[in-house]
Design brief:
The complex is a heterotrimer of chains A (380), B (364) and C (608).
Chain A: H1 2-33, H2 36-45, E1 50-54, H3 59-70, E2 74-78, H4 81-90, E3 99-102, H5 105-114, E4 117-118, H6 123-126, E5 138-150, E6 174-177, H7 183-192, H8 195-209, H9 221-232, E7 233-236, H10 239-246, E8 255-259, E9 273-275, H11 276-283, E10 292-302, H12 308-318, H13 321-328, E11 333-334, H14 349-355, E12 357-358, H15 361-365, H16 368-378
Parallel strand pairs in A: 1-2, 1-3, 6-7, 6-8, 10-12
Antiparallel strand pairs in A: 3-10, 4-10, 5-8, 5-9, 5-10, 5-11
Chain B: E1 4-13, E2 16-26, E3 31-35, H1 42-50, E4 57-62, E5 65-69, E6 74-75, E7 83-86, H2 98-108, H3 113-126, H4 142-154, E8 160-164, H5 172-189, E9 192-197, H6 200-206, E10 209-214, E11 217-222, H7 224-229, H8 234-239, E12 246-252, E13 257-260, E14 263-271, E15 278-284, E16 289-291, E17 297-306, E18 310-317, E19 320-327, E20 337-342, E21 346-350, E22 356-363
Parallel strand pairs in B: 3-9, 3-10, 7-8, 8-9
Antiparallel strand pairs in B: 1-2, 1-4, 4-5, 5-6, 10-11, 12-13, 12-15, 13-14, 14-22, 15-21, 16-20, 17-18, 17-20, 18-19, 21-22
Helix pairs in contact in B: 2-3, 2-4, 3-4
Chain C: H1 3-23, H2 25-52, H3 59-64, H4 74-81, H5 87-123, H6 129-136, H7 138-141, H8 144-155, H9 168-173, H10 179-182, H11 185-210, H12 213-221, H13 226-254, H14 258-264, H15 272-282, H16 284-309, H17 334-359, H18 376-379, H19 383-387, H20 399-432, H21 437-451, H22 454-467, H23 473-499, H24 502-510, H25 515-526, H26 528-543, H27 560-570, H28 573-598, H29 602-606
Classes of the chains: A alpha/beta (380), B alpha+beta (364), C mainly alpha (608).
Amino acid sequence: MKKFVSLLLALMMALCAVGALADVAADIEAGQALSHDELVEKAKAESGTFVVYGNTSRISTAAEEFAALYDITVESNNLKDQEIYTKLRSENGNSAADMVMIQDGAQLTDAIDEGLVLNFVPAAVADVLDEADQQPALVHQYINKLFIYNNLGDNVPAIKNVWELTAPEMKGNVIFKNPESEKVNMNFLVMCTKDEWADKLAAAYEEWKGEAIDLGEYKNAGYKWVAEFLANVTFGKSDTSIAEEVSQETAVGKIGLFVLSKLRSSSVLTDNLTVAQYDASAEGYEVKPFAGFMYPMYTMINTQATRPYTGMLFIEYLMTQEGFQPWGKSIGAYSPNAAITVNEGDLTIDVWKDTLVMEDAEYILDSFEVEDFILQHCQN
Amino acid sequence: MPEIILKNVSKRFGKFVAVESLNLEIESNAFITLLGPSGCGKTTTLRMIAGLETPTEGVITIDGKTVFDADKGINLPPIKRDVGFLFQNYALWPHMTVYQNIAFGLENLKWDKARIRARVTELLEMLRIEPFEKRYPSELSGGQQQRVAIARTLAPGPKVLFMDEPLSNLDAKLRMEMRTELKRLHRDTDSTFVYVTHDQLEAMTLSTRVCIMENGLLQQYAPPLEMYNNPANVFVADFMGNPTINFVEGHIGEGGQLSFGGMKAKFESIAGEVPKNKDVKVGIRPEYIHIDEEGVLEATVYSTLPSGMETTVKLDVQGTPLTAVVFGDVDYPVDSKVRFSFHKAAVLFDKETGKNIAKGKILL
Amino acid sequence: MDQAQTRNFQASRLKGRLQAWFSKPANIILLVFLISLAVLTLYPLLSMLTETVTIHTGREARAAKLTAGSLSLYHFERLFATAENDYSWIQFYQPFLNTLIVSVAASVIAILFGGVVAFLVTRTNLKYKKFVSAVFTFPYIMPSWTLALFWETFFKNVNIGLKTSNGIMASVFGVYMPEWFVYGAFPIALVLGLHYAPFAYILIGGILRNMDANLEEAATILKTSRARIIWKITLPIVKPAMLSTFLLVFASSMSAYSVPVFLGSPVRYYVLSTKMKSLMDSYPGQAYIIVGVMILFGVAILLLNQKVTNSRKQFTTVTGKSGQISKINLGKANRPLAIILVVILLLVAVVPLITFALESVIIKAGDYSLSNMTLDFWIGTNLSERLDQGDSTGILLNPKVWNALGYSLGLAITCALIAGTCGILVGYGVAKRRGSKLASWVNSLSFFPYLMPSLAFGAIYLAMSSRIPWLRGFLLLGLVGSVKYLPFASRSGVNAMLQLSGEIEEAAVITGVPWWKRMIRVIFPIQKSSFLSGYLLPMVSCMRELSLFVLLVPTSNTILTTMLMQYSEKGWAQFGNAINLLIIIVVLLINFIVNKLTGASIDKGVGG
């Protein structure tokens, strides 16, 4: 008898779970059509803790503001991308997130295909954003990593051309986070080998050396640049610590490739740092062929969410000017919504899109061989 | 073979006095036993002579050579004292075979392989342990380990051999066997043996002289039979002999009248002056209490322990207990009445100091 | 007798024997543990093996061009046999070699340092023995990355690594250490060796302490020089302890994660555990293969240990009269030697703490002037206005931190209780039935979890938990922690029980006392301090454990150590250092309190 009852219960729970699955997708469709107030109502009607995973520390601030506004507690957790993807795959049950803020479009594509996450575009921004910034996933912000150097002493590495970083004298002076542990960095390097950028790199090489590039064994200029760049790089622990380290008075002659918004930290001696592209723009040129790279951070709803409507409400909030503030008040965060302006002194997103390497999810998805190549050059 | 001389040797551990002003002379080729209860200082003394323990005071000489002098700051390490030491728990090295254990000391003397082999074989034969040559100690019985330990100690042919209760870990039968072996070995090896034990029977049967100690102090140093017959004090008298000596408190008046334990007698001295008007303790060996129908005094049998060869009879003499020993397979029913008298000699001890005052006959 | 009668007879005989067998609590315990340990160690192993031949969703399926969920040897091919771009060499063979080098070196260092100090403390008249004994277990109590962090912070300079800043050695003393000293194989091995030296100290010291004094005296009498005694008598007898230590430290070093990450990554020196972690995220199949390799090593070590302890040269180290071993007089060398030792220990145990305290109160890195100091990171509020990164309150005011502390404590106590109690039970069973096959299996099985690298162990349980939906959160963590630290508890339990003579319990049996009462009223009180040490060690280990839990911690409730790691990775140095200091203080406090109250100590927990 006991066995039978427990079996029955298990069956019922399974059915509920399946039911719940189907529900979230339906909820999202429904949510797309709701008005703001209706959405708020539905969100408040939900029960349980609202959990968010985000690859950003400022999400806790946004969560606080959101909670103050709508009286809904948000449990925000700052995790790395890979951890979020892993948890999305392995967790089920009520400890899982309702909503995630995540990077790496390539992996996200797979995750969407697998049915791990669902996309929700708030009505308010559906008309304002570019199609590319909405589908297949909603972009909350763009983040850029730039060449930023220490401006003290002689031998300031004020580069005009990325090939300068491959010169023998630059060995040990370039600091970058290990692509093996930072997927967006890996993606950037991969993108360098795409024909579009490889050609630009070949042209930049000619400008720098004054002669055509000799590829030798490399498949294209991108491969060559990546290999020689990595040979000169020392890997740092995290973008924050790299920013701090490069800004030290003793770090004369060093240049790093890291997240621009890290300059907001009080532990970074910003006076000692110069952003290569800022310098260049002021003097009227660009760092050839790119000044760094840029990638989006997306917001998605977990297919297993227990509070999908709250998730939708939160996304809607995040896409507003107010919701964007925790990131927007510092440099280095760019909203796809043109209405939300950038920080003073910063360049606009359009400028960046021209001068930075952007992710191409499709190219990255099947770039395993390139990754192996990069891995090889990450090891001496 | 050397003399060993101890002069005023003391050992203190903090406030605790283990050995107090010990004076001892051990002749060559002697078999000396250090005897006494636990904690009396006998092992400490042994270790001091061997060099494993450093005395607090005193002088020790072996074969005329001063090996220790507290005042002069001389303290030769055991390596230089040319002695052998047999430990109570054998201390065989568990990771070496029997052969390697025995050979170890010889390797230290830098003997060549052939000579070592010859000597080890000699010892294996002497102690009848040839079959175990390649075994490890954990694969041997207690008795076999004992022999290996002896072989190891004898291998370098030391002039003095120290033994710290070597037989106490063996069962009774084996112990008997080994005692005979040890006595034999003493003769064969022509060395001086210094032996520690708490078993008075071992001391009696094995030694040429016994040194009995209590609480760090020397009580008596004499050949076993003399110690048996002329104990220096109550402690020695009580310690030697099995069953133990009978003590009866009494008083001796003028002219040798002795009243003790409800009995009255006259004490006639054989040795020592008869005291006058003194409280005494009378010491009577059990075998000197004869039970037969011509006995003068009467007693009730309290209990008997017949062992086949002899019977120990505990008597009740109007409230005073006396233990007697009767040779042969006799037995007495409990509570029966018997007659007895005192034969041979008894010893008088001063009741206060416990010292031996006089030895004599008890005439009833 | 006819057929039926014979059968009945045999059946009732069997029944009788079974009843008799089951009436002994020791047998029941052993059977229960045999089954549960088999399940708890073998089932996860099987899960893991399955993972190595399964194609996972996401990048793996794409890379292999196979459907997710299908079975294939793809991962093996990839990890072991891919020559293009030196993939296999970079991802497996080189880290494998590095791991071996570092682990062997660490073991040797641990044995040398711990063994020599143990010898000095037990066999000579070294000065300051009390201080040395007290402080020597510190390196183990502190998380292993503590020393690594300190090493880098102290020795870094502008000539090596990132070449951007100077540590204390360079800026205060003007000494610029070379790169091989600060990063790479050397410091990794050194830091790990120092971290595990306490094992050697406890195990080797234990034997030296309990060794029969007579064994060495017998050699002395036979005119053996001091050096020869050490070489031919003391060392061979201590060898089993040395071997045990070597194996323990080797297994621990193999699975060390945070130390190689700190000290190896800046110079691209990788070991198996770092590769495993990075592969786990994107290519779990290959990661699990690495786990399998580490476990194979663990098994090999276990078997080796078995073989050695069952040799003919049975060593009985429990003595009769433990006489006073004459201590070697160090003479003139005593004071300098003692001082050197004290300085080393201070550097290893105390200075790191001071460094963390310092680092947790400075605003801009490298500036140690008072004007640059603040207690904000400890007790400040509204920090987000001033700092623009990190938490908005100092750690002592941050509810998240207190939450984490409470969670960590709760977890540590739970694991300690479970592991400790099971350890006692296992100890009872194994000691009572010693010599039997059942006892030997349970003994080995209960030690096995220790040999599995923590990171791997956690990964396996993660894999398992995805199949078993109710195995989540605290339950999962508690289970993993208990099983992982059971080895310590069972070792101390077995040792404690072996020291008890059987008669003690038999006296209670005769008077009809039931088993559970015997355990509680007779056995436990007598060996209280040994048993309690079996609780203490898991608790301390749990409090400072990272790699075991890092994959399993639910995001809603984090433990202190994962919080610390997050902060470190984000570069929030001050918060990180403050939390680090907090963890260490809590652990030291627990150790101290339990030690004072009950006499339990880490020494007894390791089996010394």
